Amino acid sequence: MPILRDIDKHENRQYHVTAVITHRVRSGREQGYETWITGISAAAREFPGHLGVSILRPQPGSPMDYIIVLQFETCDYLNGWLGSETRKVWIDRVQPLIREQEHIQVLTGLESWFALPAQTSQPLVNRAPKRYKQTFLVWVGVMLVSAFVSPLIAPWLAPLPPFLKMMLNVAVTVTLLSYVIMPRLTQWFKGWLFS
Predict the structure, then answer these.
(1) For the chain, which residues make up each domain, given as ranges?
(2) Which of 16, 187, 51, 11 is nearest to 115 (CA)?
(3) 71-121: pLDDT as tens digits
(4) Are 91 and 4 in contact (CB under 8 A)?
(5) If DSSP codes are grouped into helix, strand and coil, which group holds residue 21?
(6) Long-range contacts, 180-189 (Cβ 8 Å, 24+)
(7) Own/partner long-range contacts of 168-176 (Cβ < 8 Å, ≥24 apart)
């Protein structure tokens, strides 16, 4: 399976990894696809290292591209899922529902913050946004955490030594940026990011 070889090329296979999978659904088969995606998502959750899955559904008037953002702890865990017999069975089931072979892009580290493709016929996964746009959006994300989250956790951190307080505050910030804030900001600003 080509995607497994691509993952092996990464220098360190122990980092958090994201797979962005695009399916172009046949017209009129959306309901069947929604049922399928619920089933395969539940199956993926049973595999070791699974961190979560997000589904980006097509916007009205755009191509019927569904984007699955699948996260695993390491490349090895992702390999385990992508190469599994369980996933093969689910992929065989989806073939009548999609118009072309699925597209899989593997992202490691923080590049996944800015690599969610737009809903277009040409996936933009391989084209990174300009550096100043990335910088601006990270600034927005950090400002959101600083303004709204840091004051909420400050009372619990107050009794701790300054260095430990700083470590925990940074850990909360990075976790929220990686799993909550940046995926949403990237989706909301995708037209500007990838223009």
Answers:
(1) 2-110, 131-193
(2) 187
(3) 888 888 999 999 999 999 999 999 999 998 898 877 665 555 665 544 443
(4) no
(5) strand
(6) 181/141, 181/144, 181/145, 182/113, 182/114, 182/137, 182/138, 182/141, 183/54, 183/69, 183/113, 183/116, 185/137, 185/140, 185/141, 186/113, 186/114, 186/115, 186/116, 186/137, 187/56, 187/116, 189/137
(7) 172/145, 173/142, 173/145, 173/146, 173/149, 176/145, 176/149
Give CA separation, 42 vs 28, 46, 97, in Å.
24, 7, 19
Rounded-to-integer distance, Cα 147 and Cα 145, Å: 6
Give me the pLDDT at residue 56, please.
Answer: 79
Helix/strand/coil for 59: coil
CATH code for the domain defined by 2-110: 3.30.70.100
Residue carrying the six token digits 């992508």: 82
Is residue 70 within 8 Å of residue 17, measured between CB atoms?
Answer: no
138 residue type, one letter: V
**How do residues 167-182 score in pLDDT, each as one tens digit?**
787 788 877 887 788 8
